[in-house]
Amino acid sequence: MNLTTKTLLVLATLALAACNNPRAGGGFGADGDGFGNGGGFNDGGITSGSLGDPNDPNSIAHFQQRIGDRVFFTTDSSSLTEEGRSTLSAQARWLSANPQFDIVIEGHADERGTREYNVSLGERRASATMQYLISQGVSSNRLRTVSYGKERPVEACPEQRCWDLNRRAVTTIAGGGRTS
Amino acid sequence: MTRLFLYMTALLALIGALSTAQAQPLRLQITEGVIEPMPFAVPSFVPENSAGNEYAQPLARVVAANLSNTGLFREVLRDAHIARVSSFDASVSYSDWRAINVQALITGAVEVSGNRMTVKFRLFDVTSGQQMGQGMQFSGSTANWRRMAHKVSDAVYSRITGEDGYFDSRVVFIAESGPRADRTKRLAIMDQDGENTQILTDGRSLVIAPRVSPDGTRAVYTTYETGAPRIALMDLSSGQRQLVGDIPGAMTFSPRFSPDGRSLVFSAARGGNTDLYRLDLGSGQMTQLTSSSSIATSPSFSPDGRQITFESDRSGTSQIYVMSANGGEAQRISFGQGRYSTPVWSPRGDLIAFTKSHAGRFHIGVMRADGSEERLLTASFLDEGPTWAPNGRVVKFTREARGGDPAIYSVDISGRNLRRVPTPGPASDPAWGPLLP
To answer: Per-residue pLDDT averaged across B311-323, rounded?
Structure first.
């Protein structure tokens, strides 16, 4: 792999990562009058780290691109599909091999439901994902969930193919990132 | 003339039905569903000093727009007017107004000194040739000139329909901007007609689904400022806000005020399960209201505060339930085809408005509080989240056309008069506040 290819790959990875994390670049600190953050996930501290080379099995890039950082659901369901369980088993193996990372599981819904119900549905999907990872040996104290309901579609088109991609739970690497 | 004759015949029939009320010749019975809007005229208000000139015509325009927007009234435009109103106290030339089929005539006057203004109006029943009720005047800051026009509109609407008005009220909503996949959402407030938008949060944190306190002084909404859904309570005059209803390990959202404004009911989700809780805002005491292994969200108090309606998927799909405000057994009230969401109790207590999705379409509908007499008011690619006008005659909601931006619409409870509320940009999640004092 020459340098140009490698650079492009890293850029592509960064773009993908930005896409995967809806909070990237926003949501630091509190709104308005600076009321305390009440023990949320985002304590104002910013950690940074390289995503690495996807060919490195311990890199975040590998987790996101080769293993797959997300699982999909059918309409109004939070049941894991066979493919989803297989992805999560591989995620669990990676997470066990890389115990320095904490994880936030984001639950999402498509736009074909009401806003607040979709927050509940996204929570249910994130929770089902978390329970499966725990069953595969990932320690529960490394895992947290957040539901975005239908607020953060990854694909914004009013068609079935986009809704299918939006009904998802995404395992995001939240902290403890290594520098390299 | 034929139309007028038909209208008057209908009107006479209505008057005949009003057995106990004193005879009011100019009257619209909204519950019957108005087929023919009542023709009215609002000439430019009379400026009583030169500083009043600037407001004379705008005041009349706001009154005319309010009445026309109800769908119950139809303006006879100024080009058709024969008589000119040049003095507020001059006698009305009824024949000139009858000649152009005007039935309700509103005249007004405005006087401005410094940043204070006084607005007066009178309402005339042209058909019978009589003033209807007494003249009224409102005084206040010129900055609130639109509110003066809303007050006049409310008085006119109320005298003719016998119902409370809803024009002098405000709506809290979500102002949206940016790409759909990473939308910026800000809490905002506007007048009910879409004017005077003020943005209340800076957009750094995602915010959704606000509600207004019964006295209109506070808002509650769901914010992602900590990284997960939490409930914020904002004082609308100062902008001061605080997070409330923290339940460790849970996402909390979907907050609603009780009718006395002293407590909230909201949802808490954890472990794949969403339950309803009640929070006493004074003491901070929290009570769990539901404990079903399913989703319970989008609650709404009955106006007497004794019951809560909410949606739950405990039957397998989302449906509407009613339970005591203290929790306990819940009765399912929705039994039609499809999924039912976001029940909202009417301020009159008689109806519950809801979102229904069925066969790929979304609807706003109303049903009686026992679930009977379901009526769908709208249909589109995505309609959701009704909120009631203070008088229970109109609902606003979010409509998103396929591939389009969300916008706020209103429709009356007969399903007529669907209108888009003009907002400066994409807008969603309207929450209609009370009639202002």
So the answer is: 97
Interchain CB distance below 8 Å, B241 and A32: yes
In a domain, B83, yes or no: yes
Q: What is the pLDDT of residues B256-290, one digit of tens each?
A: 999 999 999 999 999 999 999 999 999 999 999 99
Structural domains in chain B (count): 2
Which of A27, A117, A148 faces B225 most closely, judged by CB atoms? A27
Residues near B159 by Cβ (< 8 Å), separated by ≥ 6?
B26, B123, B132, B133
Domain boundaries, chain A: 3-22+50-175
- Whether residues B353 and B399 share a domain: the answer is yes
Interface contact B315, partner A, CB < 8 A: no
Are B239 and B369 in a shared domain? Answer: yes
The answer to whether the beta carbons of residues B75 and B42 sit under 8 Å apart is yes
Say how far apart CA B73 and CA B78 lie, in whole Å: 15
Q: What is the CATH number of the domain that holds B86?
A: 3.40.50.10070
CATH number at A3-22+50-175: 3.30.1330.60
A119 touches chain B (CB under 8 A): yes
The verdict on ipTM greater than 0.95 is no
Q: Are residues B105 and B217 part of one domain?
A: no
User: Is the CB of B226 inside 8 Å of chain A's CB atoms?
Assistant: yes
Question: Of the candidates A78, A115, A158, which has its C-beta nearest B209's C-beta?
Answer: A115
Range of the domain at B71: 37-161
Instruction: Note whether A41 contacts B: Cβ–Cβ < 8 A.
Output: yes
CA–CA separation, A166 vs A143, rounded Å?
A: 22
How far is it, in rounded angstroms, from Cα B201 to Cα B184? 11
* Best residue in A115, A127, A141, A145 for a mutation probing chain B (most B CBs within 10 Å): A115
Q: How far is CA A146 from CA A71, B52, B53, B292, in A?
A: 15, 56, 57, 21
Q: Is the pLDDT confidence value at B20 over 80?
A: no
Mean pLDDT, to the nearest integer, of B15-23? 37
Identify the residue among B183, B225, B361 best suited for mutation to test binding to A, counting A beta carbons within 10 A and taking the highest.
B225
SS3 A165: helix
Instruction: Tell me which residue has tokens 């472990």.
Output: B271
**Chain A residues within 8 A of B382 when measuring between CB atoms:** 111-112
What digits encode the pLDDT tens for the residues A128-160?
999 999 999 999 999 999 999 999 999 888 999
